[in-house]
Amino acid sequence: MQLRQFKISDLPNLNEIDATIESTHYLHLDRSMEGLSWKCSLEPRVLRQKLIEANPVNEDLAFVLKQLAGDESEGRCLVAERSDSVVGLCVARNLAELGVIEIVDLRIDYDHRREGIGSAMIFDLINYGREREARALRAEALSNNIAFNSMLSKFGFELAGVDTHRKSNHDLVRERATVVWYLPLS
Question: Three-state DSSP class for 62?
Fold first, then answer.
């Protein structure tokens, strides 16, 4: 496996990455509010039915890739190649004004998961962030993407909050919310 910088010529090949999200569990959000007092807890629970959700490269991600391609000061875009096939993608934006490197997307081909590709990409982002003197890496994950949430937790990312209205006003009914994670770099 080889990690290298993303090139615009890679864009048509990115949908060859089978980034299907598959899970039997989700992170259940339990929250209570009383005045300004707010309590929140997340715990793994079994989904009512197994989640199998396609995750193609959308127009927003393609736009970010075009913006960041070749400009290391603005962000980091990596592809993982194996046997001349793109099997992974990692996109991160340098939010220098906040001192944060934001992970925009991390996708590994279904047939190449659990081979350390995602870990290698996270380690690369940690080094990229430290070189730029960022104070943290930031990531968002849907609570029903248990694999990505677990990976972030294993790397030492700290839970920073949840957004229950990110995708719609009915996210909790559909057993998903946006989970925000930070990994301090200093």
Answer: helix
- Quote the CA–CA distance of 57 and 36 in Å, as a whole number: 39
Taking the CA atoms of 45, 20, 123 and 59 in sequence, report the sign of the dihedral they define.
negative
Instruction: Give this prediction's pTM.
Output: 0.86
User: How many residues would you count in the chain?
Assistant: 186
Q: 147 to each of 24, 34, 128, 138, 185, how far by Cα in Å? A: 10, 33, 24, 17, 23
Residue located via tokens 């992970």: 103
Question: Are 24 and 13 contacting, i.e. CB atoms less than 8 angstroms apart?
Answer: no
Cβ distance 174 to 149 under 8 Å?
no
Q: Phi/psi at 111 (nearest 5 deg)?
A: -75, -10
pLDDT tens for the 186 residues of the chain, in order: 899 999 888 888 888 889 988 888 888 877 777 888 877 778 888 888 888 888 888 889 888 988 888 777 799 999 999 888 899 999 999 999 999 999 999 999 999 999 999 999 999 999 999 999 999 999 999 888 888 999 999 999 999 988 777 665 444 445 578 889 999 998
Q: What are the chain's domains?
A: 2-29+45-139 (3.40.630.30)
